[in-house]
Design brief:
alpha+beta; oxidoreductase; 3 helices; Arsenate_reductase; two-stranded antiparallel ribbon; Glutaredoxin
C-alpha cells in the first residue's frame, strides 16, 4: 500500500502534473478521483487541518457553481461550506496530496516536491513543456 495519496482530477493539468512528479520519484500513489469518490466530511476536515488550510482556501471558483451558490458571501460557516463541497465535489481545489512528510494543496504542481519522501529520478517537464526537474533530479 502506498504511503502517498493524491486527491486527483484527471481532467486537470495541475493534477496530472502533480501525479507525474509523484511517479517521477518512483512512487505509485493511491489515486482518489474525488469527483467519483468524494472525501467524507470528516476526511475533508482532517485534510484541511493537516494542510493548515481553511475551507475557503480550498474552494474553487472557476468552472464550478461557486458564484451561483453565492459562496463568496461571508455568511456561510465552514461547516456549511464543507456541505457544499460534499454536494458539489468540483468545488474542492486540487490536487491535495498526503505523504508521510505532510499534506498540501499542490498548486502549483511543483509544490508536491516539498513533501515527497523520495527524490526525483530524472528530468520532468510539465505538460506545457515548462521544465520542473533537470536530468539529475534537481528542481529547476
Amino acid at each position: 500500500m502506498s504511503q502517498i495519496t493524491i486527491y486527483h482530477n484527471p481532467a486537470c493539468g495541475t493534477s496530472r502534473n502533480t501525479l507525474g512528479l509523484i511517479r517521477n520519484s518512483g512512487e505509485e500513489p493511491t489515486v482518489i478521483e474525488y469527483l467519483k469518490t468524494p472525501p467524507s466530511h470528516a476526511t475533508l476536515v482532517k485534510l484541511l487541518a493537516d494542510a493548515g488550510l481553511s475551507v475557503r482556501d480550498v474552494l474553487r471558483e472557476k468552472g464550478t457553481p461557486y458564484a451561483e451558490l453565492g459562496l463568496a458571501d461571508p455568511k456561510w460557516t465552514d461547516d456549511q461550506l464543507l456541505g457544499f463541497i460534499g454536494q458539489h465535489p468540483i468545488l474542492m481545489n486540487r490536487p491535495i496530496v498526503v505523504t508521510p512528510l505532510g499534506t498540501k494543496l499542490c498548486r502549483p504542481s511543483e509544490t508536491v516536491l516539498d513533501i515527497l519522501p523520495q527524490p526525483q529520478r530524472g528530468a520532468f517537464n510539465k505538460e506545457d513543456g515548462e521544465p520542473v526537474v533537470d536530468a539529475r533530479g534537481q528542481r529547476v
